[in-house]
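Note to self: keep these together.
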Amino acid sequence: MKKQKEVQACARKTSIGGQALMEGIMMRGPKTYAMAVRNTKGEIVIEEAENKTAKRPAICRWPIIRGIFGYIDSMVLGYKCLMRSAEISGLEDLVEESPKKKKKREAAEAAKAAEAAAVTEETAEAGEQKPAEAAETPEAETPAATTSEDPKQTPAEEKTDKNAAEEEKKLPAWVWGVLSTVTVVLTVVLSLGLFMYLPSKLYALLAEHVGFLTGNGVAWDSLWKSVFEGVVKIGLIVGYMSLVSLMKDIRRTYMYHGAEHKTIFCYEAGLELTVENVRLQKRFHPRCGTSFLILMLLVSIFISFFIDPITVLIRGEVLPPILRTGLKLLLLPLIVGIGYELIKFAGRHDNWLTRVISAPGVLLQRLTVLEPTDDMIECAIAAVKRVIPEDNSDKW
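Structure:
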């Protein structure tokens, strides 16, 4: 254990990151990304593709700006891999397959049927060529089960009826598309309402009845408002994550999250990527998306502090809650960029300052990063091995 700690103390800081999926993990490296998901048979299915972010203009790698593009990339790629992992793990059974996939499946089934028919025909021809006396022996007699005229369905017919019944239970593809779109829109609206408008509105209502929140000058009033809104946002985040962690499927996703962290720690420590070595690593990582989320909330408190003084200077009065929400929405890219730089800094260094920066996120990771099982660690190892550059060009 002492030797392991010494190795971790001089660990390299890499640009490899990941995301927990449905029954799997996605790892993203500097050149490629890979997804390892267990299918319904318990087998690990690996899919990988090129990481196109490296081909962007140099301006996309500038401080602050790179955080904005990185956040968008993470959201788009994460959603894409999450949906794909749901298909591989079997959750797509509730959805009617697309015409393109149906055509491919029917072609594959027809090819298998033709192959089976060819084998049967060859077997029949071989049987006809046998000597007549051999055909008359008791061993060559056809079993009664194959010549029976029992009207019961054959296994193939029973399977066809079962598949037909399952098809009837599936939702049409267009219905699933409409539901997905509505879900995304409602999620965005709900997020904006809960995390931007609601805190501002609550403060406005509270300030009407609590005297010390107003009348102390623009700076102090703005400070109270920013802190109050930040605390409400953090409370909503913690409450939401605590509730969803009670769901069985979400808890398994959080366990895969733990496997992702442990595997990255193992790789950064320079240890061989084995289940035994990964199991011994820490769960909480300073570059976690959970830590990034908390950092964004803390940065938003700091940024929001300047809104009222500046608007009073320009307009002569503070903004109402609805306009304040709109302005904070416009400032979101700046908040994301600053949060990204902070978490990047915390990932590259290990000192008292970075530990302070990482502390809130590490505390919240106790809800979102759970201890994984060995089969989850195997998925994480399979994914991270696919994204490690051969030229060791993954350093920050």
